[in-house]
Amino acid sequence: MHVDVDLAGVEVAPGVWGKADRDIDFQVGSAVVSTVDVDAHTLTVREDGQVVRTIPVTTGKGGNGGRYLTRGGVKVIMSREAERRMDAETTGVSEDDPEYYALDVKYAMRLTNSGEFLHAAPWSAASHGSANVSHGCTGMSTEDARWLFEHSTVGDVVEFVGSEGGMEPGNGYTTWSLPYEEWKAGSALPAAQPA
After folding, report:
1. Is 135 a residue of the active site?
2. Is 119 a catalytic residue?
3. pLDDT in tens, 100-158
4. The pTM is what?
5. Burial of 105 per CB tally in 10 Å (0-12, 13-18, 19+)
6. Which entry of 41, 128, 135, 137 is annotated as an active-site residue?
């Protein structure tokens, strides 16, 4: 793709002026969009609209006032780590709580600021595809997590359907959850002029 950026002499913010024009060439990869069906316990990966893999998963368990429910809505992969230490203390769970955990997980991809990830969860293999037993993350086999990690990148969309909980504004890249008209109302785009 090619973009001509003609900003020389353009006021881009009050008192801030563009200094130069630029021509930029870049490539856009495939559209990779995953859908996690919380009720069906599946994660379906689509590449350019075509299903390429369906993965059995477990998501957040109920109970405890909904504290561990996986949020529904559109999320975006924020970061990728081949291995990550997950410590429940960072989410306010003390070491003396029966829900406390401290684990090294493989193929972790962050979805929210509050700590929802996609990752390998071999300890819950019996629940993949059949029950939701996690503390809010989406867990799967190590093999499936490795495949997903290798076929995903920062910025890929992951939509969660069937969840009782919803996304809070600012808990991740939540602009995707806004209707376009609401997003546009808060943007720098000029309002549409009547014809």
Report:
1. no
2. yes
3. 999 999 999 999 999 999 999 999 999 999 999 999 999 999 999 999 999 999 999 99
4. 0.81
5. buried
6. 137
